[in-house]
């Protein structure tokens, strides 16, 4: 009902919207005026949403960086689904949620996010919650632009649980993966803070904070050391293109474009570092059919989408093992960064990903990203290899 009411208010206030200059819109938006937002249309600008998302992702990135620097073993728990979750996953979700929700009138904020507070509300979770609250407050206190009272443990739990929306095809919903690539994070490798925005079921904006991704190309793998700054922030919004800037703000945003390579033998591909997340024998077959010569670039998280958006790799192949269901937060921000950089993200049927169905993505076997020119030939190689796959290894 609430979503329906908000949806209607977008229509009611469309005239107000068009009367306001874009400069004023940004100023007003940051002063918590949201109810007059229009429904998605060609004329809709999501610039101010990107500004808010960027601020939230930068804040969360600082917490993640600080935890990764001093990562202690006891700061990693195992969730029931056997994926690791750290105090940084929770802390990042609490910070992004807190940072965004304070810009909305009470009750009008909706977010679909990976984590929830259930384990933190148990006796065993009490010290973990204590630590998360401390990290969240340290991060807020270190930001000179934020002059607010410290959050209580209850505030932190509430902020985490604001991510419990079911999303769907109506209204606006933020989509958050507070740490994508937790395994990479724990290993000291790549991870991303991935924040997208859905408007009536379509991803309209996205920000990817990649604290360990070098600003220089990783086409030949991630260099062990580099003089270039490390830490990228990719952002995109519908019709406005995609950009990369440094996470610390020292390098200003510049437009990014996917690779224009048209010859698959000159193409490179990327995939998950974790072989449990994608069938690497299948992706090797697909690469073989395409005549790809270079070995795959294997990195964790949606940092792959960011790297691809600036041309570091030409094709992204992801084929989870049988029974795995993809979640929207693992792809929403990355998908818009790629599409706004001129690429395409699709499943094995060639269909774009459908983010309108709730917390899960229902798709036809696998996720593929590449440039528009290569889509048909990559798709045909994918379909050929899937057909030839032994029935036992099939999805
Ligand atoms: N068996 C599996 N198959 C495919 N993806 C999986 C998986 N188990 C976990 N994942 C997802 O893969 C994500 C990491 O992506 P990548 O493989 O590109 O590094 C994880 O995100 P989290 O780390 O946020 O849990 C998780 O959602
Ligand atoms: Mg996880
Ligand atoms: Mg994830
Ligand atoms: Mg995650």
TrEMBL record:
GO terms for molecular function: 3'(2'),5'-bisphosphate nucleotidase activity; metal ion binding. Gene3D superfamilies: 3.40.190.80, Fructose-1,6-Bisphosphatase, subunit A, domain 1 (3.30.540.10). It catalyses: adenosine 2',5'-bisphosphate + H2O = AMP + phosphate; 3'-phosphoadenylyl sulfate + H2O = adenosine 5'-phosphosulfate + phosphate; adenosine 3',5'-bisphosphate + H2O = AMP + phosphate. PROSITE patterns: IMP_1 (PS00629), IMP_2 (PS00630). Signal peptide: none annotated. Mg(2+) binds at residues 114, 177, 179-180, 330. Keywords: Hydrolase, Magnesium, Metal-binding. Its cofactor is Mg(2+). Pfam families: Inositol_P. Its EC number is 3.1.3.7. GO terms for biological process: inositol phosphate metabolic process; phosphatidylinositol phosphate biosynthetic process; sulfate assimilation. Belongs to the inositol monophosphatase superfamily. NCBIfam families: bisphos_HAL2. Converts adenosine 3'-phosphate 5'-phosphosulfate (PAPS) to adenosine 5'-phosphosulfate (APS) and 3'(2')-phosphoadenosine 5'-phosphate (PAP) to AMP. This is 3'(2'),5'-bisphosphate nucleotidase. It comes from Ceratodon purpureus.
